[in-house]
Amino acid sequence: MQSLFNRFLDTTSEYLAHRKGLLPGVGLLLVMVNFILQLTPMGGFFIEANVLLHLGIILAILGFMLAWAL
């Protein structure tokens, strides 16, 4: 199990090392989608709780931290 996780981390870090702006870009996209969904008349917990906003901000911060480290 540990070797599988290590191989996953190696593959992921190698992939993201060449695409440093991917995670912040996806995070920004999630924030924009959340804004657009706020303007629509649809409701529900998913929009009221701003799930995409929070997920996008966390992903963008994580992306910046990984880009800085790699």
Helix share, percent: over 70%
Tell me the distance between the termini: 25 Å
SS element count, helices: 4
Shape: elongated
Number of strands: 0
Strand portion, in percent? under 5%
Largest sheet: none
What is the averaged pLDDT score?
86
Determine the structural class based on helices, strands and strand pairing.
mainly alpha
Uncertain runs with pLDDT below 50, 5 residues or more? none
Spell the H/E element sequence.
HHHH
Number of domains: 1
Radius of gyration of CA atoms, rounded to a whole number: 15 Å
Notes on the protein architecture:
The chain has one domain (2-69). The protein has four helices and no strands. The chain is elongated. The model has no long low-confidence stretch (mean pLDDT 86). It has helices spanning 2-17, 22-39, 45-48, 51-69. 7% of the residues are buried. It is mainly α and 70 residues long. Helix 2 runs antiparallel to helix 4 (51-69).
Describe the SSE topology.
Blueprint: H1 2-17, H2 22-39, H3 45-48, H4 51-69
Helix pairs in contact: 2-4
